[in-house]
Design brief:
Number of domains: 3
Number of helices: 13
CATH architecture of the largest domain: 3-Layer(aba) Sandwich
Oligomer: single chain
Shape: elongated
Number of strands: 14
């Protein structure tokens, strides 16, 4: 009986002719295009010293031979990376994950991806993101009162948007929440309840030679509102950790025993006040009222639920992403500046002060 011939790939079910086609290499592309391997390499690395007609021919042959995923050479052809950078230096606050996720979802819906950078960047490194074609645009967070990053990008014509704002925003694009107005709403609410000595606990707006915009605007809004109503204002600043915030809160309580309410515009300052209240056996809101600045979901999880200036992280992230995409893809007029109105949501952590 003759031996049964060995099965070959051709005879196996489920193996399509396309799957048997060997992958093209850079040598194959060079031979089919009639150019050198080094020319193909220069095109792949987007070097400028290749004639436009040659570049188009090689890219077309790459497409025909399936050399690279379509998106890769489309990026070369269009001059776009389809990447958005996000610079989040955590010098004053830990990264705001809800905000970052909202921005990431916003750009991904438009076919972009997001790259998060947390380390400090020098001027050459920041400009290198664009000059090296590592990103098409950038979202800047943790904005300083005199932040030089947006000015540098503006002067070089690179697309960006800030989440936060500076003291001078001429020619700069940003989206932010009006924290000064939010401070006014918080102080008004406490004054209506009968509080006359109110403390503000916030991260120190000055670290070395850097002045953090958000904390600066919060302090300014707080002091203006207390002055308007003739209240005793006791502002205090501390380090960015929860333990440092608790120490600062305890110092305020000891120095000013008449304090009956705190405003805490960051997550770590809210936790610091709660730690200090527990250390002094103070109950909320019977012994001490507290207004924080947190997202609605986090404020509702506290016990008692937290009266809060709403921090619309999802909306800020979504708006920042949309503004940048409008600049990149829609030719939207520039600059754009959006200051969201603050909202105070009254819950269980504020009450009439104890007599």
């Amino acid at each position: 009986m003759p031996a049964r011939p060995r099965s070959t790939e051709k005879d196996r079910p489920g193996v399509s002719p396309r799957s048997r086609v060997p992958k093209s290499t850079i040598v194959d592309i060079a031979a089919a295009s009639g150019v050198s391997v080094s020319t193909v390499s220069r095109i792949l690395n987007d070097k400028p010293d290749v004639a436009a007609q040659t570049r188009e021919r090689v890219l077309r042959i790459m497409d025909e031979m399936g050399f690279a995923p379509q998106s890769a050479w489309q990026q070369i052809r269009s001059g776009r990376t389809r990447l958005i950078a996000m610079h989040v230096p955590p010098e004053f606050n830990p990264p705001a994950y809800h905000l970052i996720i909202a921005a990431a979802l916003g750009v991904e819906d438009a076919g972009y991806s997001i790259t998060i950078i947390t380390r400090a960047l020098g001027d050459s490194e920041l400009l290198g993101i664009f000059r090296g074609r590592h990103a098409d645009g950038i979202i800047l967070l943790e904005i300083l009162a005199d932040d030089h990053r947006p000015e540098l990008l503006r002067d070089h014509g690179f697309p960006f948007v800030m989440i936060g704002h500076r003291a001078d925003n001429t020619g700069l694009s940003f989206v932010d929440v009006d924290i000064e107005h939010g401070m006014g709403l918080a102080v008004d609410h406490l004054a209506e309840l009968g509080h006359r000595e109110i403390a503000l606990l916030t991260v120190d707006p000055v670290v070395q030679d850097k002045t953090y915009g958000f904390a600066t605007w919060a302090l300014r809004g707080f002091q203006a509102a207390c002055e308007r109503l003739g209240l005793c204002a006791w502002p205090s600043v501390g380090g960015p950790s929860e333990a440092a915030m608790a120490t600062a809160a305890l110092g305020l309580m000891d120095a000013h025993p008449g304090i009956s309410a705190f405003i805490a515009p960051q997550q770590q300052s809210v936790i610091g006040v709660l730690m200090a209240a527990r250390a002094r056996s103070l109950r909320l809101p019977q012994d001490l009222s507290l207004i924080g600045m947190l997202s609605e979901s986090m404020s509702g999880l506290a016990t008692p639920t937290l009266t809060a200036i709403d921090f619309p992280a999802d909306e800020l992230g979504r708006l920042a992403a949309q503004m940048l995409l409008d600049r990149l893809d829609g030719g939207q007029a520039w600059p754009r500046q959006v200051l969201l109105p603050a909202q105070l949501i009254v819950r269980e952590s504020t009450a009439v002060p104890r007599t």
